[in-house]
Design goal:
single chain, Serine Threonine Protein Phosphatase 5, Tetratricopeptide repeat, Phosphorylase Kinase, domain 1, 5-stranded antiparallel beta sheet, two-stranded antiparallel sheet, 7 strands, 41% helix
Length: 402
Amino acid sequence: MKTMGEILSAYCSDDFDMQLIGKFLSFASRGDRVGLNQMLIKGISPDVQDYDNRTALHLAASEGHTPIVELLLCYKANVNLKDRWKRTPLTDARLYGHRDICRILEVNGGNDLTNDQFTVRHEQEDSNDVKFDMSELKTEHSSTIQQGSFSESEKVKWRGTWVVKTVIKRHICNPVKMILSAKDNTRLRELRHPNILQFLGSIVQQEEMVLITEYLPKGNLEDILRQRARLDVHTALRYALDIARGMNYLHEHKPCPIVHNHLDTRNLLQDEGGHLKIGEYWVQMLYEQINPDQNGKRSGNPGNSTNILDGTKKDIRTFGFIYYQMLEGNHFMTDTNSDFIHQEPVDFKPKFHLSRCSYRIQQLIEGCTSNDPSEIPTFESVIGTLEEESASLGRPACPVIC
């Protein structure tokens, strides 16, 4: 068996382990100084990059993690590496208003290579950059995997890195050609959060819609619940925080909120660090693309505040059922086509027979699963409650910018 050092030394070859790079970058994004330092001590380069050529320094600068920036600079991280959009870490620090980090990067030779026209140029250039070439997807040693509820997925290699190729099934919509617009592709590719699956791009091949996403090797929440029936209070709380943080990021996305509408234990995927990431948040866009309303607008148009409100409440309600299942082990949502959680509101009163969760968590789940929209909290409120509960249990949650 290879040691950590031997695996890390393989970064110089074409067969490097992207999962370890993902773990390293996740530490930087989360602000985990201990985890990041351990990997740096074992020999990983501070300048490893993800699919979009973003480094740990890019991510730490974006999230405002000053201690991480300082640590990376101690390990001689390159302050002027550019990502796919020609942005440097200083560009990101300025973009998100982290002035202290800007000063630190400037003192260490950091440059901002963009100009005032960056935002406009970025959207125009990226509409062409998101296109994948099917010939780049290598199927040698590929395997079929389940990474969601609505699609067939296959683990393939792209430019030496394992990714997931997903062929969208027609039955999720209508027998109409499905395609994500260039604008949707750009919007999805720009999303960055430790608790959402990274979307890499899409390909239209004849009558099929093919999506490319990052590969996570440790299965999904349904697999975990199938093996363990139900989770202990601490593990369920940690997973609930992962889900709530990822969903809050999607709901609070500017200028257009992203409603999932299909949250499920099968599209909640576990990463190398044991945290959950949300997948299939793009499925609703496919529905909207081919199901316009009577005025010719997409049915889930972000400009329609009523639809957005209904969708966010539905996502929170689904979250409540999933949290309940993690605690009580009630498998009442295993069939996507007849899911209890995806039906119209029905009478449901959560009863806590098995778990020993606190009264505060019971109240939270009751609020999330309520049929009365006025009683359903926001994900921001959910996160606050979960973090307070985590602190009271003596296990503070990992700091993440939501």
